[in-house]
Design a protein that fits this description.
The structure holds 3 protein chains of 3 kinds. Chain A is an all-alpha fold. Chain A has one domain: ABC transporter involved in vitamin B12 uptake, BtuC (Orthogonal Bundle), CATH 1.10.3470. Helices cover 79% and strands 1% of the residues of chain A. Chain B folds into 2 domains: 237 residues, 3-Layer(aba) Sandwich (Rossmann fold); 228 residues, Rossmann fold, CATH 3.40.50. Chain B contains 18 helices and 20 strands. Chain B has a 6-stranded mixed beta sheet, sandwiched between helices. Helix content of chain C is 75%, strand content 3%. Chain C has one domain. In chain C, 54% of the residues are buried. Chain C has a two-stranded antiparallel sheet with strand order 1-2. By secondary structure, chain C is mainly alpha-helical. Classes of the chains: A mainly alpha, B alpha/beta, C mainly alpha. Chains in contact: A-B, A-C, B-C. At the A-C interface, helix 5, helix 12 and helix 14 of A face helix 3, helix 4, helix 9 and helix 11 of C.
């Protein structure tokens, strides 16, 4: 049965990559490991976005709204109430979930560009609120947190890898499950899905919640890696766009493609760092080129061949 | 047959703004019965189907399904209650295999189900085999032919064992052989004691299959009965064909053979996988009025849109010795091949005068004034309504405006697509007279597409009959009644 | 008096917003595109205008013209390089085209912002006012320049109205926003219509950008907030409705001015954003929206 063998192939590939990745600290410098660590958290951002877009068919222009809520939620809890890290991470996830629901529940009723616009405005609003309440959030400069996951580059790397691995298993598994099939149908053709007996709204809200929880958790984890939270690292619109580009670059609707795209993007960013200020310009230009010439992304092109014959 | 009614519709009404799409419709369908819901474009039949399925919510009326009123329920609840639907256009999930598409239909509406129940796969395979898809289970929809996609839609609709199956245009795009196979499938549904509602443009296509027919026009019930009764019903014939064929005046044949202005050679058009036009051969000579008659869904609009350059096609369209392939639609219009489409495409929020002026944009001011004056002679009501916003005009006035706007372009070939659709008889008189005047006073060539044969025939020098994407008859109007008229409906 | 000061200042900034937003709504109405690089076009016009006027020594008048020309060029580039290729791309399914256009213009806007920051640094620049001195408006000492700007905005808006409602080209634009297919059937090439509307848009945004530079000063960092204000206004007013946009521009402009004066200048953009979110939930079609 072809679909099953393709499935086994993908799962096998994931395990293999995870195994190889786990061994990297013995070959790579702490600096590069640090970049990969960020890339892995970014991978979860992008996967969470792809679940919502690729599967529920909703474009979230402000994924950093959820990420930022998770990040700052965890940071504020840690800095002001001294809770252990994992409690803060869970709290961050919950804050993202609640914030996301408040935003999404009414917004999912909207059609056309309005949902996207609302998510975009949400990011701007959050950014402004962070700045207003600077005494709690540290404003534009950002805030530091007293706890970090670890001081050791290798340990941080493994934490990130483990987190990415678990999230990938869950999200990818979800995408290939029965629920994932229903989500795909809802995203592709809501009326046809309803005619088959599925409450599309319920499923889209659920997808949004899952996306929110994972985005929030990853945002919180990133804070405890970097030891700080700031607008420029977790909320800024250019970060939001990079999340979207990472998922598109890897291949929409593939989930694991988002991880590939993130690693590529973060590494590219690093590679372009010597350009200084033009760094963002080049990344944006490349992203635009991807959209124009390569919209199916890496995995998209690779997988498309199989469906056509 | 005194089976209890599976579904009882009463007083079903739906308004879209000021337009009443469905007005007080009621009917019963019993278990093990196949009913045909028939009507031309704009009759409301598709809306009735959507109302039953919950895709639209009715303004009034009840839909009693097995004793429960489901009117106004959301579609997923209605689907779970036991109604399945086969849409006119196939809607497969392209990234999933056939088997997965069918399995989807068998899944419960649960957020927590990660793995489907073990019997889902076996059931899905059984259903696939039932509709004849047993050997393409693991292929993707993109690789399948059109008929197989339609079978998959059927499979999805009956997967959960519905008590009522709604099928929209069951045979659109199918070959004769495929039609027979699908009819067998649908008869199988009846044998399983399901109620079936077939929605279609014309009785002829489904006559062999249905037990009863319910005919609609402009949102209202026209008549119901057996297929035969409905086909011979006077009102139905008048509404579909415009009246009694025998009472048509014959035109005198044109004196000389004028040059061919437009020629279609083996033109074919595909909508995705569905064949919309097949091997069309057509000739229009200078100064002729050619009528293309055919029921809604036969392919007239596709034909005209292809000639106007909107659709890709195989074969050739030749105008004045040159192939039209590759010319943009705007350029074709500027060159004198102008279409007045079925949907009219007016600029609703602009005035009548502004609409007409836009039509005459390419003329000099002087020429435009003259053309406008001539047009107002042809359609005096347009002069009266000059300053009014186009969307506030009545249906007939809008049609006149649409034709007038096309005439402002001083077309050499004018294509009219169903100008009489939805208009009252008195307006048809006006249009008919205007066409006659055009005929007599200008050298214009006209291609008229109509379902209303009584309207089209008096003006035609030649007639083509289009049925299911093919030209099935060609000749002069005098012979039409004798040769093609009987089987038309 | 503070109240009158607010009214006068608010009027000027609202007029500027109105000019920019009208262009934005025109593009949406005719071309169907929400151009998220809008702020970028205004900023480029302002910076080029400043550069030509000051650094290159062209003087204020020529510099201003150069700025507007830059706006026009950039708008056409936006259409030709970003919007049109995405709309025509066969690799993108038609249901997703809108999203890709939004993302594409967003990226283009970021490129413009970063590019400008690189070339000109992100410090705001001002163009020397065309008219110096102050005058008395309802008892408030107002720079003459400010009054002239408000007047200019309205003159341009008036010219635009004349163009759309009284000229042939304008009627074609109006028709394109109502029914593009109808226009094709009448022999008009839509591609030419789009070039026309993007050109008009470029001029409008260019003028708005240059005037803003001479009024408040403009830097590359304004790119995002300017786009945000424009689409807040356009959505509030009703996507595609010019009169709605004008009304909403004044609502947003005054809200911002009130906030800046009465609460804090840093909180300027917030009430408009909140209003926008509320509007999208309660009345998504805006004040006078058509679609």
């Amino acid at each position: 049965m072809r679909s099953l063998s393709r499935s086994r192939l993908l799962w096998g590939a994931i395990l293999l990559c995870a195994a190889v990745a786990a061994l990297l600290p013995w070959w790579l410098s702490a600096y590069i490991l640090g970049i990969l660590t960020v890339a892995y958290y970014f991978g979860v951002f992008a996967m969470a976005w792809d679940l919502l877009f690729g599967f529920a068919g909703e474009v979230n222009f402000g994924p950093t709204f959820l990420i930022g809520l998770g990040a700052y939620g965890a940071a504020i809890l840690d800095a002001n109430f001294g809770q252990p890290i994992f409690v803060c991470v869970i709290a961050g996830a919950l804050v993202a979930l609640v914030g996301g629901l408040l935003l999404a529940l009414p917004a999912l009723r909207l059609r056309g560009p309005y949902f996207g616009l609302v998510t975009l405005v949400a990011v701007l609003l959050l950014q402004n609120f962070i700045v207003i309440f600077a005494h709690i959030t540290g404003g534009e400069i950002g805030m530091t947190v007293p706890d970090v996951l670890s001081a050791d580059a290798n340990a941080n790397y493994w934490y990130a890898l483990a987190f990415l691995f678990v999230c990938t298993i869950i999200l990818f598994g979800l995408s290939r499950s029965a629920v994932g099939l229903i989500l795909q149908a809802s995203g592709q053709d809501a009326i046809a899905a309803q005619a088959l007996g599925f409450n599309v709204t319920k499923h889209k809200v659920a997808a949004f919640c899952v996306s929110a929880v994972f985005s929030g958790m990853a945002g919180a984890m990133l804070v405890f890696y970097e030891g700080a939270a700031s607008v420029d690292t977790v909320i800024n619109l250019s970060i939001a766009v990079q999340v979207i580009i990472a998922a598109v670059l890897g291949g929409r609707r593939t989930i694991i493609g988002a991880v590939l795209g993130s690693i590529f993007l973060i590494l590219a960013n690093e590679f372009l760092r010597p350009l200084g200020q033009l760094n963002t310009f080049v990344v944006a230009a490349v992203a635009l080129a991807v959209i124009l010439f390569f919209p199916d992304g890496f995995l998209g092109y690779a997988l498309r061949g199989r469906q056509r014959e | 047959m005194t089976s209890p009614a599976r579904i009882e519709v009463r007083g079903l009404t739906k308004r879209f703004g000021g337009l009443v799409a469905v007005n007080d419709i009621g009917f019963d369908i019993a278990a093990g019965e196949i009913m045909g819901l028939i009507g031309p474009n704009g009759s409301g039949k598709s809306t009735v189907m959507k109302l039953i399925m919950g895709i639209e919510r009715p303004n009034a009326g009840t839909v009693m399904f097995d004793g429960v009123d489901v009117a106004g329920w959301p579609p997923h609840r209605i689907a779970r209650a036991g109604i399945g639907i086969v849409f006119q256009h196939s809607r497969p999930l392209h990234r999933q295999t056939v088997l997965e598409n069918i399995k989807l239909a068998l899944l419960p509406d649960s957020l927590l189900r990660l793995v489907s129940a073990p019997d889902v796969e076996t059931r899905a395979i059984a259903i696939a085999e039932r509709v004849g898809l047993g050997d393409v289970l693991h292929r993707h929809p993109g690789t399948l032919p059109f008929a197989s996609l339609r079978r998959m839609e059927m499979a999805k609709a009956i997967a959960r064992d519905p008590k009522l199956v709604l099928i929209d245009e069951p045979f659109a795009g199918l070959t004769a052989g495929e039609v027979a196979a699908f009819s067998q499938l649908i008869r199988g549904f009846r044998a399983e004691n399901r109620a079936v509602l077939l929605v279609d443009h014309n009785v002829k296509g489904v006559a062999a299959l249905v037990d009863r027919v319910f005919a609609m026009y402009l949102g209202e019930r026209v008549t119901e009965g057996t297929a035969d009764e409905v086909m011979h019903n006077e009102t139905v014939r008048r509404v579909y064909m415009g009246g009694d064929l025998a009472a048509i005046e014959r035109r005198p044949a044109p004196a000389s053979e004028k040059p061919t202005l437009l020629q279609l050679d083996g033109v074919g058009v595909l909508y995705g996988k569905a064949r919309a036009l097949d091997g069309i051969e057509l000739k229009v000579r200078e100064g002729e009025f050619v009528s293309i008659v055919g029921l809604n869904g036969a392919g007239k609009t596709t034909l005209f849109n292809t000639i106007s350059g909107f659709l890709p096609y195989s074969g050739e369209i030749i105008r004045g010795g040159e192939k039209l392939r590759g010319t943009s639609p705007a350029k074709i219009a500027r060159s004198g091949l102008v279409q007045c489409p079925e949907s009219r495409e007016l600029f609703g929020e602009m005035s009548v005068r502004e609409n007409l002026d836009l039509g005459g944009q390419h003329l000099t001011d002087e020429a435009r004034e003259k053309q406008l004056a001539w047009l107002f002679e042809l359609f005096p009501i347009l002069r009266e309504r000059q300053g009014q916003m186009a969307q506030t005009l009545s249906g007939g006035e809008q049609q006149m405006l649409a034709i007038g706007r096309a005439l402002m372009m001083q077309p050499k070939i004018l294509i009219l697509d169903e100008p009489t659709l939805g208009l009252a008889p008195v307006i048809l008189e006006l249009l008919s007279k205007a066409l006659e005047k055009l005929r007599q006073t200008t050298p214009i060539t006209v291609l008229l597409g109509e379902q209303n044969v009584t309207f089209a025939l008096p003006h035609a020098d030649r007639v083509y009959v289009l049925e299911h994407a093919r030209i099935v008859w060609e000749g002069d109007p005098g012979r039409f009644a004798a040769e093609a008229g009987a089987g038309y409906l | 008096m503070l109240g009158l000061q607010i009214i006068v200042d608010g009027f000027a900034i609202s007029s500027l917003y109105a000019l920019g937003a009208v262009g934005f709504t025109l593009i949406f109405g005719v071309s169907g595109v929400l151009n998220l690089a809008h702020g970028g076009i205004m900023v480029v016009a302002a910076l080029v205008g400043w550069y030509c006027a000051g650094e290159l020594g062209f003087g204020t008048y020529l510099g201003t013209l150069a700025g507007v020309a830059a706006g026009l060029a950039l708008a056409l580039a936006t259409y030709g390089i970003v919007v049109r290729p995405i709309q025509r791309s066969r690799a993108i399914p038609s249901a997703e085209t809108e999203i890709f256009v939004l993302t594409g213009t967003l990226l283009w806007g970021i490129m413009i912002e970063q590019g400008m920051a690189y070339l000109f640094s992100d410090n705001p620049v001002t163009i020397r006012p065309l008219i110096g001195g102050v005058m008395n408006v309802f008892g408030v000492r107002t720079p003459r320049n400010e009054v002239m700007i408000a007047a200019l905005c309205w003159i341009v808006i008036g010219l635009l109205w004349l163009l759309v409602n009284r000229t042939r080209a304008g009627k074609v634009l109006l028709a394109a926003s109502i029914n593009p297919r109808g226009l094709t059937l009448l022999g008009f090439e839509l591609s030419r219509v789009y070039v026309l509307v993007w050109s008009i848009y470029g001029v409008l945004a260019g003028i708005a950008g240059v005037l803003l530079a001479s009024f408040l000063g403009v830097g590359s960092a304004n790119t995002g907030p300017l786009t945000a204000s424009a689409f807040s206004i356009v959505v509030l007013g009703g996507l595609g409705s010019v009169s709605g946009t004008l009304i909403a521009a004044y609502v947003v402009g005054y809200l911002e001015t009130l906030t800046a004066y009465l609460i804090a200048p840093t909180l300027r953009p917030i009430p408009a954003l909140i209003l926008l979110v509320l509007a999208i939930y309660i009345r998504p079609q805006g004040i006078l929206g058509r679609r």
